[in-house]
User: Which sequence fits this backbone?
DNA sequence: GACTGAGACGTTATAATATTACACCCGTGA
DNA sequence: TCACGGGTGTAATATTATAACGTCTCAGTC
């Protein structure tokens, strides 16, 4: 229930899955909801807790499988330095985003257009980049 | 890489510690050696194994404490996306380096001069950046 | 309807990574 | 001497993640 209040991001996810022929199953959808609802990076085991209102169900593989799926579609990002996950509102390609994480309030802002590295080593071909900035956001500094 | 008994990096580390009034104890020195000798990122528990020729000694806190010390001095970097550690030959400030990790051979190259991010969110002040690029190095592509 | 193959999920166990808490030792300086 | 602090030893545990294998369901097919 409360499906009427589908967030735009959730709706975009459904559209994306349709396009790619992927299945946004209830579990995957629920995990995405939880990540999107959070106001900051979420830990896998917090998702796990949130996922088990009933008994028995929701073991680690459940949430990791859902996260893997969502990461693959670029619907969530992993914050490597925190071992945590954030929802992605842009639904861009999975390439990787540039994340700005406020150490005070925990909020995460996402920028796109990967910064061309000043100098790439001779012949190095980049496939995936992890770019995470930690600091203090404008709100927390004012 | 180098297996010299007195690598330049090790000597530089001693100098740095002298300057900063820090103590490069045998354990810390041994951990640094191990990280520098490795030809790629090293896992904490691999260090732990390498550290225990004798019985009893070398429990997790031992290696994590040494790593924390070395990270603090910028003598090693943590590869967040791998939960692994690499030696730093530059002995620059702890600010953070830009790492290029070859997925084929595991080698890590380090560049400096942090790439100005294309767009920093309004008012965001960056304190620490994690920049890790994964791909294929020139050697592995030729 | 029954068979089959693929994908998603359930379940158990365990691996891998990291930290907490407290005790001990040892050198320095009051 | 004594207290103190830094570094280390040790046990226990917390946190994060994966392996291995079984089951269920659904679509396509016979």
Assistant:
């Amino acid at each position: 229930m409360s499906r009427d209040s589908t967030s735009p991001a959730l709706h975009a996810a459904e559209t994306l899955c349709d396009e790619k022929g992927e299945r946004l199953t209830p579990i995957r959808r629920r995990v995405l909801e939880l990540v999107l609802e959070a106001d900051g990076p979420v830990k896998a085991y917090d998702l796990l807790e949130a996922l088990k209102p009933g008994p028995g169900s929701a073991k680690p593989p459940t949430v990791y499988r859902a996260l893997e799926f969502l990461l693959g579609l670029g619907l969530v990002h992993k914050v490597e330095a925190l071992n945590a996950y954030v929802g992605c509102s842009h639904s861009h390609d999975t390439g990787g985003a540039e994340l700005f994480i406020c150490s005070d309030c925990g909020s995460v802002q996402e920028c796109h257009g990967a910064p061309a590295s000043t100098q790439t080593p001779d012949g190095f071909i980049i496939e995936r980049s992890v770019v995470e900035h930690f600091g203090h956001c404008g709100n927390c500094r004012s």
Remarks:
- Residues 23, 25, 27-28, 56-59, 61-62, 65, 83 of chain B lie near DNA strand D (CB under 10 Å from a C1').
- The CA atoms of residues 100 and 109 of chain B lie 5 Å apart.
